[in-house]
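ingest -> validate -> predict -> emit
validate: passed (alphabet ok, no gaps, 173 aa)
predict: started
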Amino acid sequence: MTVLHTALGAVTVTPAQPDEVPLVMAILDEAAAWLQSRGIRQWPSPPPPRIWTVMTQAVAQGHVYVARTQRDGALIGTLRLTWTEPALWPHDPGGAGYVHHLAIRNHVRGYGMGALLLEWAKHHIRGAQKRYIRLDCWGENPALCQYYEQLGFTYCGQVQQGPYLAALYQLEL
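emit:
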């Protein structure tokens, strides 16, 4: 368990447990609905069965993490971390950690929770002796692309996967 100190008070980051999958999915759905209300098609709301399957399997494998306030234990954010991403980054010889499904609750927007979870991920990935933290986002979401660039990530190109245009970002650790 990692304890982070924020404007919201102490926040812990721990692996998600199987009984928390519905809570993780609720966070993802809340974030997707918020994005869609602003005309951004990053994720579908509600999440389709395929995403439920991916997240359920990832939780079972220990790849999904949740952030919760220490004060009341409420879940306020989540992310999925993997060690390969061959579909988007086929030329990685195992030197990176990949962040997916980074999402926070609407009521904690503006407190830097996304950046804080990325800092946690950097530390976790560095601890696994990896050189890069990598992520992708919808390439037609300029505000999110700019957000990652402001956090120090370098744009590495785009990959089209069906209707999804992935903007690729990495940061050397």
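The chain has a mean pLDDT of 92.
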